[in-house]
């Protein structure tokens, strides 16, 4: 998926004209990529529709390269689809009562492993009822947030062995509980899971536990009897959280099973496991897209420590492969150092900006993208030039190198020789003849040069320190 997304950016980048048709083509690619990544069709369509609505209007007017604009819109949508913010684990709502967490999911999804990982998480989170989990603060792109470290005694956590069907399930949980020093409530395989859940929660209440985590048997969506049982287990333990454990490799099935569990049992969130594997990423989008419930944690390995809070923005970056996507501003600032810019704008103020500078400058500009894109960066410029005008400008810019190469050194350093008078016309004709073009083509270039001077002057003011696109001091 990541590779495909990168390709889509490149596709748009090469475009001179950003038309509804080119957005459509890019969206077609995105759609294929998402479906290939096993994102549910309904979720995919919703996403595409939303991006289309924003992209078609926006690409034409805003001052960022279209590919980056497009990727940004995609990114924002992905973050939105995945719930925008990190969703913290619930706290107990009742003073002195443990928080009750019920885990559900298919056989082999990683429930029992997740139970132990969560138990460790709750131990580390510590004792006591809310204060509510601190919400993730507003983050700039690329910033990483780590929750504040907590001090105090570890939380007292009870693991409840509710899987009475798989032969070794209870022993597995007991082993894990031993390893992290968490008590395991395991009355045995011949006890009704509903009674185990009820008994476990009661035991945790009486014992002053901070958290109780109920492991359950894996069940197929189609197994009505087991789904019924799960509903009863939920009724018996009145959980604060019902977390659906979803294997990230599940693919298309993730949507179906999320919908089924949510409708049948009702979930409050999900844990996406095995994200360390060769996951195609689609499940992350499907789960929230289908249920409206957030993914709260991700499993990133088989060890007990391999549990992380789920961050929608990081996941979106992972899906888009945006690690190396820099904003247009950053890109522009890299191409044109502030020192160079200051020097150039000084030259423009001194009216010493000449054809040699132009040559240098147009190289930089071409590195940044098309003329059209550059024009869009400049306030007042966007919308005033037609697509045709911008395309023509681009073609003319390509001839600029040729024309300048045919100029005499004194003409390059003193553009006025080509601008002012009848003698200037003679010089223009000479260049036209040598370049095998019409004189008006050279005249057009000279007029372009003057426009360029103005553009560069405005841009340098915007990009200079203190300008609205200026770098940090
Ligand atoms: P359950 O049937 O849902 O209880 O699944 P288990 O917890 O028994 O896990 C099934 C298998 O998946 C085990 O071999 C686990 O070690 C493995 N597993 C669980 N979570 C992860 C994870 O996040 N990453 C990886 N690589 N393996 C995992
Ligand atoms: Mg299990």
From TrEMBL:
Gene Ontology annotations of biological process type: SRP-dependent cotranslational protein targeting to membrane
Known EC number: 3.6.5.4
Keyword Mitochondrion appears in the UniProt entry: no
Keywords tagged on the record: Cytoplasm, GTP-binding, Hydrolase, Nucleotide-binding, Ribonucleoprotein, RNA-binding, Signal, Signal recognition particle
Protein location: Cytoplasm
Cellular component terms (Gene Ontology): signal recognition particle, endoplasmic reticulum targeting
Domain of life: Eukaryota
Reactions catalysed according to its record: GTP + H2O = GDP + phosphate + H(+)
Enzyme class: hydrolase
Region (Disordered) location: 128-152
Keyword Cytoplasm set for record: yes
Domain SRP54-type proteins GTP-binding intervals: 294-307
GO molecular function terms noted in the UniProt entry: 7S RNA binding; GTP binding; GTPase activity
Transmembrane segments: none
Family: Belongs to the GTP-binding SRP family. SRP54 subfamily.
Name of the protein in its database record: signal-recognition-particle GTPase
